[in-house]
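Troubleshooting log. The previous structure file for this entry was overwritten by mistake, so regenerating from the original sequence record. Sequence copied from the archived sheet and checked twice against the printout by T.R.
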Amino acid sequence: MLVLKKHSRVALIYFLLAALLGVVLRAFYTIEIPINYRFVVHGHSHIALLGWVYVALTTLIYKTYIDQASYYSKYRYIFWFTQITIVGMLVTFPFIGYKALSIVFSTLFLFASYSFTWFILKHGKKELKDSNSFKCVKIALGYMVLSSIGPWALGAIMSTIGAESIWYRMAIYFYLHFQYNGWMVLALIGLLLYLLEQNNIQLPKNVFRRFFWSFNLGIILTFSLSALWTKPSFLFNILGGLGSVIQIIAVLGLAKYISTKKSTLKQLYSNFQFKLLTTVSVLLLIKMILQLITSIPFFANLAATYVDFTIGYLHWTFLGVVTLSLFLLMDFYKLLHISRLGYVVYLTGFIMTEFLIFYKGLAGLLSLQIGDGYFLTLILGSLLIPVSILLILIANIKTKHSL
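Regenerated output below.
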């Protein structure tokens, strides 16, 4: 447990660094910074996804399905090799962008993620391998591996038809779609189902089967939404809309059944954790409604024309659904103590920046003025994110010293 707490703090430090890079990106609009904006974007996104989310999520999966001292001697090699690749990306992407050295580290990371997938599938607790929760996590790991086709394709695309090709962006969108909507969201759902299973809340076979197949079908179909910016056949809108509707129905069906166990959930979670679970559920539903809206041609064109809508949606998923779910699970397992002050500051920064980002998109659409103080306010809102992470980190250091 103590080792996994250290791993969790490592993940949180990555989140802090990614958040600070995010503040630097906001500052580009107000002051002159002698570094390449695109390079910082690459560093920010890689450390956020592969540092914070990946390390936190894999730590939780190890805790849930392995957590045996006899296996840690093998796992630690995978963990520390992964950290070398992440630190390598941290010190290369913000300064040189996509060059040979940064590509080497990102490629090595892919091999590290494959090793982790193999490790979990091989050494996962036998008594859990037939559980509903493990089925979700197993498929989530499959989506993570599938998403890596995108990075592999980038090299071939850049060396042949070039980065200006539509296939370059499609490879990136392929990676992001199956990372966000496949790997991250489904793994988190699996981990939350595990908590229910351990407290004798078993989903009836027909309820789980309906959710599982519908949700996964939705993941596949909604990838077509990532191609709408190329103005393809209207069939892509239909498939994306159908996938979105199927996913909403799947999540509502799951939520409806779980809500019947509300009294048990309140005993399982602390008051704070239950509120976190409720918040995550609302954010996930809104995410899927936004996904459905983008299947309508008018809104699909808006998302393609005004990049703030896309950034707002991605941050809604990453900073809202995914990060708050990780906070909930890590607080529950006592891998991290999510201080109430840190959480309030984080939520304030999240709401504030989301409002400002979506407002900028609407201002562009409606030809509204955004005001002279807009970017300074956005910087201040963005600063609340690293401040909140620092507060949580300090709370965990104090907790460690008090043990």
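The CA atoms of residues 22 and 383 lie 9 Å apart. Archived copy saved in two places this time.
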